[in-house]
Structures are given as C-alpha cells and as structure tokens.
Amino acid sequence: MNKIAKLFVTFISAITLALVSFTSSFAKVEGEYIVLGSAISLTGKYSSNGVHTQNGYNMAVDRINKMGGVEVQGKKYKFEIIYYDDESNPKRAAQLAERLIKQDGVHYMLGPYSSGLTKAIAPVTEKYKIPMVEANGASRSLFTKGYKYLFAVLSPANQYLEVAIDLAVEKNGGKGVKIAQAFEQDAFSQDVRLGILDAAKRTGSEIIIDDKLPKELNDMAATLAKVKAVKPDVLVVSGHTKGALTAIRQISEMKVDVPMLAMTHCDAAKLSKQHGKKSEFALCASQWHKNLSYKDKFFGSGKKYAKDFQKEFGYDPPYQSAESSAALLVFKDAFERANSFDRDAVRDALVDTEMQTFYGNIKFGPGGQNVAKPMILFQVRCKGDDCENRVVAPTKWASDKFYHPIPKWSERS
Amino acid sequence: MDFLIFKAPMLMVQASLDGILLGILFALIAYGMALQWGVMNIINIAQGDLVILGGYIAYTIYLWGIHPAWGVIISPIIMFFVGWALYKLVINKVVDRDLFISILATFGIAIVFQQLMNFIFGADVVVAQSEYGTTMLFDSSVTLPNSKIFSAFISVLYAIALVIYMRKSKLGRAIRATAQNARAAKILGVDTEKVYAATFGINAALCGIAGALISITLTLHPYVGLPYTVRSFMIVIVAGLGNLPAVAVSGMGLGLFEEFADYILGTEFRIGAVFLLLVLILVYRRFKLSKKREYLK
Questions:
Q1: What is the distance between the alpha carbons of residues B151 and B174, in angstroms, rounded to a whole number?
Q2: Do A214 and B115 touch (CB under 8 A)?
Q3: A132 with A40, same domain?
Q4: Distance from CA of A199 to the nearest CA of B (A)
C-alpha cells in the first residue's frame, strides 16, 4: 500500500512538473490577452519620467488593441500590462521583476525607467530567460554584458553627443577642436563621456578640461571659471536635468562665452521653458523629435503621434514616451513573426527585428542595442521670449540651420 | 591642466569669492542646526529637507508671478510654523531621549518630507529666476552672479538680526538659558517646552530663508536635501555648538577649501577633500582632548 501511495505521489508530481514546464514554455496568455509586465517608477525621484514611460506604453497598448491587436496563429490577441511601482529604487525593481515573473507568471517584460533600474532588472530577466524590450536604459554597460534577452529600442549613451563633436570639427574646417567637458559621476553620464573620448580620438581633437562632477554637487562655478580661462571650442555638459539647469544658470550668470555648447537632458529639464532666452543656442542630444520623417501604420508620423499624445495626456510627448510606445510596436512585430508564444521563438524573432516605427528604424545589434537609429541634435532657438527646440543635425532631418558660433554674452540682448 | 589656478591669478580671486559667497549661505543653515543641537541636543537629519521645502515655497510664489526674492520673507514665516508643528507632533517625544532616537526620528521626517514634496511639487528639477544680472570685476575676468551676492547679503543680515534677538529679547535669553542648563532654567520659571518649540521653529525659519536663496542661486529637487544636511553638520562639527562667529568662519572656510580643492585636486575630489579635512579635524580634536586629560591626571 505504502509503495502504491509513493508511486502515486511520484506520478502526480511528474505530471505537475510536466505541466509547469509545459505552461512556462508558453507565454502568459489569458484568454485573448497577452500579459506583459513592467516595474516602473511611479513614485520617487524618477517619477516624472516614470510616468512619461508609462503613458508611452499605455498609448501604444490602446492603439495596437484598437487596430486589431496582435495576430498569432490566426487568432487575434490584445496587449495588457501589469505595472508595479519600483519607487525609483533598483533593489525594489529587481524584486518586482522577480515577482512579475514568478508570481504573476509574466513571460514578457517591458523595461523600467533609467539605465540604473534597467541594470538592476536585466540579470533577473536573463536568469529566467524572459525577453525584455526596454526603452529607457541607454547605458553602454547594458550592451556589453552579453545579455541575450535584452533589447533596447534606443541608441546607447555613448552615441549621445558624438554627433556634436563631428559638427564642431566640421565647422572648424575638418581640423580637431579643443573640448572642455563636465560630466556627472553616474553610469549614464560617464558613458556619454566615453563617447566624447572616442570622438575626440577619431577627429584628432584635444580635451583640455575633463571634470567629473560629484552627484551631490549643484554648483559648477569652478568648472565654468576654468572654461572661461582656457577658451575651448566646445563645452560639453551632461548631468541629467540638474546638470542641464545648473549649467545654463551659471553659464549665463558668469557670462561664459563658448562658440558651442552641447548638453543632454534639455527637454526633460524643460530648459527652454525654465531658462527662456538664457538657454538659446544650446545644442541638445535627443533620441527622438516629432519633426523626424519616420512613419508607421499605427501612429502615422511623429507629428501625428505628438498630436494624439497631447490629446490623450495633455502635454507634448518627451522622447521618453515616444521610445516607450515604440517598444510595444517591436513586441507586436516579434510575436507576429514568431507566430508563437514560445519564449525562445519570440526572442529569436526579436533578434531579427528590422522595422521602421514613427520613432525611428529599429534593428538590434549583438549586444541588444538599437543600431539603426542615429541620435539627433536640436538647438534651442528663441523668437522674443518664446523658445523652442529645432532639429539641426543630422542634416537629413534638420529643419533649421545650425547656428554657430554662439554670439558673445555682451552681444546678446 | 593641473595647476591652472597658479597660472591665472584671477582664477584665485574668482575661486575665493565663489567659495566665500556659497560658504556664507551654508553657514546660515549650519547656524540653525547648531542652535537646536545646542539647545535640544537633537541632530536634525531633516535639516536639508526643510531647506528644500523653504525653497519650494519661494518657487511657488515665483510661479504666482511674485518675485522669488520675497521668498526670504514669506518662506521663513511659513517655515517657522512648520517647525513649530513638527516639534509638537514628533520632536517633543524624542527631545529627552538619547541622540540615536532623535537621529532616527528626524531621518523618518526627512523621508516623509521628500515624498510629500515629490507628491506636491513633482520630481522635476526646478529653478526660480531672479534676473539680478552679473557683477563684473577686473575687466570682466572675474564674474559674480548678483543673485549669489544677494543671498550672502541676506544671510548675513538675518544672522546679525538673530544674534541681536538672542541677546536682547526675553525668548532669546530663555533659549540661551535652556541651552546652558535646561533643568535649572525650568526651576527658574522658563517654560522649556515653549523654548524648544520656538527653537525648532527658528531653525526651520532659517532653513526657509536659505531655501528661498537656493531657489534663485542653485536648483531645487525633492531629493537633494541630504547634501545640505551633511554640509551643515560638518560646519557645526568644525565650529562647535552655540558659537556664531565660529560657524560663519567655518562655513566660509569650508567653501573656500572646497573651491581650491576643485582647482588643485580636480572636481571629482572636491567633496572627498572636504571629508578628509573633517576627519583630520576630528582626529586633531581628539588628540588635543586626550592631552588635556593627561594634564588633569
């Protein structure tokens, strides 16, 4: 009897195990819904960008569902996303990723906001072999770890300001330029810095100031005083929104004259709104701008996307929202090409992605980064007190001419 | 690149003035901390968050179209009551306990304040514009933002006013008496409960002034309070409690030291250099103390 009972238990557990492995090799699909999961910063220091990301995801989910959803093996499915608030905390984000996968049974993930949080989640999704399409982690180190299940629709951080150096060299008649740079000491900004170092080497430019700003610091007076003394051709600053706002405030107050000023995070910092005319002529790296001519059948053009987004959420979409929407278009495309919910089939389909979205072309490199889309640069230009961002590079999409050199403060009204 | 500052002497003037102007502002925050630390024996971890809240008050009136400089009057008034309420709600329960409890309590307050500010004002970095322009010195090779000069001037003004108030007014005398010996003050009829509440209120008001000044000179964000706490803590450690001139000197000294460290050691080491200095000062203090003890033996 005992033996029979043991046999019975073994049999049952074998079946359970088989069932578990059977279901886990297929996506979490409930009825007509494909369930995606995302840990996202709804509170804490990244909450505003976290919300931009979530709005971008939601907008795309609505649009795709309305336009017929995702067709797999002849059946139509709709997207649904389970969100958890990671409180802008990497540890919490990793826990939530684990919870999404293990408890909620999610088999496809969307990325969180910021490189730091993506870095925290990637090892978890990798461990459980869960494909993750992320739209807000640009740090180069994400793409050098050999992750197989991570796909980023955005250009890596080291490409952010390389274009700016090329532009400066071009304006200098092809000769190398003198670069002064100040970067915050965090993963993202340091990656941007590496990109500049590469560009400097490539173009024969010289880096004459290379300051690393402590995270706690919100005063750049010393760096700018040095810049005034050595007169570089280009000043490059990257330190998230705080860095961008501090730089413009102090450059204008200290009357620092540089022919060219290149930065990151201008639109997230609402630079042209908060600093107005003082921010004019600043050159900013951006993943996306609504005036670009990319198109897809879901959102039409960038301009159309911006209009619809404005209608839905009441503000102009920052690039964080646009790239997040693009992540869902990538998932839809991959599911349909895989024509299956098998995780590995979908992962393989993601690897072969080659498509155009309103946000830009998407094709993943060996590290998972998007290699098909260049970064763009816009320049803040003002008419009276009304300032806006105009695309000046690359030339293919430039709506305006790049204004160079920046007039001296004594000549600016 | 390393010793650019020695090649261009004007940089030295620039660095000194930048350091001193910023140091004065930090000294104001540190004075508030020294005051309540001396009187109530509480190390306020939420000091920086009170500063940022004060800054957001100034930023709010700026959004309403009022010049943010009015913040240096409006913000301390509001912050005084915030401080008073905070005392009545939390601090009075920890005031006689050991230091660790008060650190824990104020740390909790700091977290609550950060989240509340994030909730109310959003997580964006914001600045208020004073449009004060710039003062150019030495053929415009040294530039000083007038907003920084303004903030140093206001800080000094308030500090002087506070010193006079502490000397002359009844409440000021009661605060000083309580700081010296709370029990004796109580026996002599001082309402120490009220004194504590007022002290905490005054500290919050000082933070309010500093915050308003920071809104026009630097940037505001709900989570940048901690560096201000650490900085004022350091100034107080160096200066000692209840000694305003020492706090002012130590504030300016640290500001200067930091600017020069930036030029000589590099920007990435400026904060590290300040901490190193702090360690050296503490070691030196201990060394001096132990000598004194030997002498007493």
A1: 30
A2: no
A3: yes
A4: 21
Unique residue bearing structure tokens 């000589």: B264
Q: Would you call B270 and A249 a contact, using CB atoms and an 8 Å cutoff?
A: no
| Subunit contact B267:A211, Cβ cutoff 8 A | yes
Minimal C-alpha gap between B134 and chain A (Å): 6
Decide if A164 is inside a domain. Answer: yes
pLDDT in tens, chain B (297 residues): 456 767 777 888 888 898 999 899 999 999 999 998 888 888 999 999 999 999 999 999 999 989 999 999 999 999 999 999 999 999 988 887 888 898 999 999 999 999 899 889 988 888 888 888 888 887 777 888 899 999 999 999 999 999 899 889 999 999 989 988 888 999 999 898 999 999 999 999 999 999 999 999 999 999 888 889 988 998 998 887 767 788 989 999 988 988 888 888 888 888 888 888 888 888 888 888 787 766 554
Please give the tally of structural domains in chain A: 2
With cut-offs at 50, 70 and 90, classify the pLDDT of residue A18: low
Contacts of B115 in chain A (CB under 8 A): 43
CA-based nearest residue in chain B for residue A221: B18
B49–A contact, CB cutoff 8 A: no
- Same domain? A53 vs A107: yes
Nearest to A213 among B118, B119, B267 (CB): B267
Strand order in the sheet with A261-263: A206-213, A178-184, A234-238, A261-263, A283-286, A376-383, A386-393
Asked if B125 lies within 8 A of A245 by C-beta distance, the reply is yes
**What integer pLDDT is reported at residue A38 of this predicted model?**
95
Question: Quick one: A339 and A356 in the same domain?
Answer: yes
Query: Does one domain contain both A131 and A72?
Result: yes
Query: Which carries the bigger pLDDT value, residue A186 or residue A132?
Result: A132
A-chain residues near B263 (CB < 8 A): 222, 226
Q: Do A124 and A31 share a domain, yes or no?
A: yes
Residue A116 covered by a domain: yes
Q: What is the ipTM of this complex?
A: 0.85
pTM: 0.84
A45:B223 CB<8 A: yes
Of B8, B221, B227, the CB nearest to A229: B8
Q: Which of A40, A41, A45 to mutate to test the interface with B (most CBs of B within 10 A)?
A: A45
Candidates A179, A37, A202, A183; CA nearest to A111 is A37
Interface check for B9 against chain A (CB to CB < 8 A): the answer is no
**Same domain assignment for residues A314 and A258:** no
pLDDT tier at A30, thresholds 50, 70, 90: confident
d(CA A8, CA B79): 72
Range(s) of the domain holding residue A352: 26-155+291-363
Listed in sequence order, the residues at least 6 apart from B285 whose beta carbon sits closer than 8 Å to its beta carbon are: none
Nearest to B267 among A45, A212, A242 (CB): A212
The CATH number of the domain holding residue A144 is: 3.40.50.2300
Same domain, yes or no: A59 and A115:
yes
Whether A11 is in a domain gets the answer no
Question: Are both A401 and A262 inside the same structural domain?
Answer: yes
Find the helix packing angle between B192-217 and B71-86, rounded to 10°: 140
d(CA A47, CA B116) in angstroms, rounded, equals 13
Domains and CATH numbers, chain B: 4-296 (1.10.3470)
Phi and psi torsions of B125, nearest 5°: -80, 130
Lookup: tokens for B154 = 């206001």
A15 assigned to some structural domain? no
